[in-house]
Design brief:
Elements (H helix, E strand, L loop, with lengths): L4 H113 L10
Length: 127
């Protein structure tokens, strides 16, 4: 059984077409797989972008709240400073009153000594 040239060409052509079909089929499978993987990557990227946007929104909200807290802290500090000034003023007044009370106590003690030294002349009565 000898194969002539026409049969050999027909066999090789048929074999070539089968190889081309097989390669095309495999390329198609690889292409679909690659496209599927690219779709997954794109979906993952979109998910990350959305999460980053949500995170950024949360951070912006936290920054706003922090700014409000800072404003309140400054207001409290101003109130504390005002109270401190008032306390200092009250302390000065209390010190002045203490000095006056001490002076009156000294005067009363001196007056008592003086009146006790003159018992015979008059008496101070304490009830």
């Amino acid at each position: 059984m000898a194969i002539d040239d026409k049969q050999l060409i027909a066999l090789l052509t048929n074999f070539k077409e089968e190889i081309i079909q097989s390669v095309d089929h495999r390329i198609g499978i690889f292409q679909e797989d690659f496209q599927h993987r690219m779709d997954l990557v794109v979906e993952g990227q979109q998910s990350l972008v959305e999460r980053m946007d949500r995170f950024e929104d949360r951070m912006t909200g936290m920054e706003n709240r922090l700014e409000r807290v800072e404003v309140r802290v400054v207001a409290v500090e101003m109130k504390v400073d005002a109270v401190e000034k008032k306390v200092n003023a009250v302390e000065k007044k209390v010190d002045a009153v203490e000095k006056k009370v001490d002076a009156v106590a000294v005067d009363v003690a001196a007056h008592r000594r003086d009146t006790e030294a003159h018992r015979a002349g008059y008496r101070v009565r304490e009830d």
